[in-house]
Amino acid sequence: MANIYVIEVPKWGLTMEEGTLVKWLVSVDESFHKGQELCEIETSKIINVLEASSDGVMCRFIAKIGETLPVGAVLAVCADQPVSEEEVDTWIKEQNITSDLFCDTEIDINITQFGKDVELNSVQSADIHSSVTSDHSKSEYIPEILKGACNADINLATPHALKKAAQWGIDLRKVSPCGKRISVADLENAIRNEGGYVIPFGYPLTRKAFSGSCGDDTDVPATPVARRLAKKLGVNLLDCRRTAKSSRVCKADVEAAAYQLNIGQSTESSTIPLCTESSDHSYFTTEPLSAVRKTIASRLQISKQNAPHYRLTIELNMEALLNLKDKLNVTYPDINITVNDILVKSVSQALIKVPELNIQFDEKQQLIRRFVHADVAIAVALPAGLFTPVLRSADKKSITEIASELHQLFNRTRAGNLQPEEYQGGTFCISNLGMYGIQQFDAIINPPQCAILAVGTIEPRVVVNENNEAIIKEMMTVSLSCDHRVIDGATGAIFLQNLKKFVEMPELMLA
């Protein structure tokens, strides 16, 4: 007898609460082996792959691409050997997955009608596959292009899909399956792609307001996502059903309560419009924030609001550093040493000289952590967002070691293969926009770090030498942002003095 089981959203790191399904790497009915990559999941930091813990067969996808799910939510149903759709359905019913495991899976439904998106409240995954109400004029719109005689071939579609296709009058030959057979999800995708919509069974088209509770809901068990949403919407958790695992409130429960409370709506009975109008949608598109972008936005907003930034600026003569770079590249032709590599070394040495900047600040506990070695983070801009891989103990490494390790770190960052220990922590950050021709800019501190160096471009400038002569030198402007709660202005100035000394006389780093 086959062993049927589920795969869930894993917990990668102590702070991980949720993940977004980016891509399935296997298909339904496809066999996989232990260690094979099954899907890509985006966390608040990186995109990682979930590997199979044993050999098996992918039976049914539960989560959909783009869904953000809490840790432990069901992603898919698998088995150790091929099984039929009926066996999977029976197992799901026996395990009571509909009311237990699926309840933490929260899906935001976007209904598309005639090319326009209409947002409805979230519903639970179990509702997605429920039958549609008989009032087709309100609950669904099936595009004419999909309509036709339903082919009742069991090899062409799953039993559920055959039933739905017959109900909706869809010609299965006009639907492309994601797996070996057409599923209900394939039907829904085809409907949306052709400009139609389907409203899940039981979704109310009208609603009336009722007054909410005022009691303390602190002890009401709820998922982290649901608790944050309830706080944002002003919903008391006492007014919510508890349909998630362990009788907890989930996101769908909060949204249902908000819907019944008419939060943000008129207190009179209102009807949900199936089509919205605006002035002109042809000039823009919309897209949701990714998990990475949400984290960046949240952390930098908190930093800007909570940390009193002050900024110090200084000019650096780069000619000695550029000469050193050229000599090192001649001596070590296999290592492409850059200005950034030597700058990381200079910053690490300055941090050891001025350890008051080589710190982290725990705002919650009001503690300063002082570090023996300089763990330097370097900002890397990618289409998905800003990442800050950390070079550990940079002060103990040679310039060639720094160049080699940074090259490997940057490659893993671009590939999305960073491990948590490679981007967490750090005692200081460098953000370099010089390659874009930016002369000077101010950067926002990345907590729990307390300082960040903004690096501008290298360019020829007229300067006055010790003989009061105007000469041209290769110069660069850097700006230091510090958290005034833990770093005084004079301390920041001393750090920049030491940095200037190491940059303009790099031989001192060899002492």
TrEMBL record:
Enzyme class label: transferase
Q: What is an example of a GO molecular function annotated in this UniProt entry? A: acyltransferase activity
User: What EC number(s) does the entry state?
Assistant: 2.3.1.-
Q: Which residues form the Peripheral subunit-binding (PSBD) domain?
A: 221-258
- Every copy of the Lipoyl-binding domain together lies at 4-79
What PANTHER family does UniProt report for this protein, alphabetically?
DIHYDROLIPOAMIDE ACETYL/SUCCINYL-TRANSFERASE-RELATED (PTHR23151), DIHYDROLIPOYLLYSINE-RESIDUE ACETYLTRANSFERASE COMPONENT OF PYRUVATE DEHYDROGENASE COMPLEX, MITOCHONDRIAL-RELATED (PTHR23151:SF90)
Question: Could you say which protein family the record assigns here?
Answer: Belongs to the 2-oxoacid dehydrogenase family.
Q: What is this protein called?
A: Dihydrolipoamide acetyltransferase component of pyruvate dehydrogenase complex
Species assigned in the record: Salmonella enterica (Salmonella choleraesuis)
Q: Upper taxonomic classification of the species?
A: Bacteria, Pseudomonadati, Pseudomonadota, Gammaproteobacteria, Enterobacterales
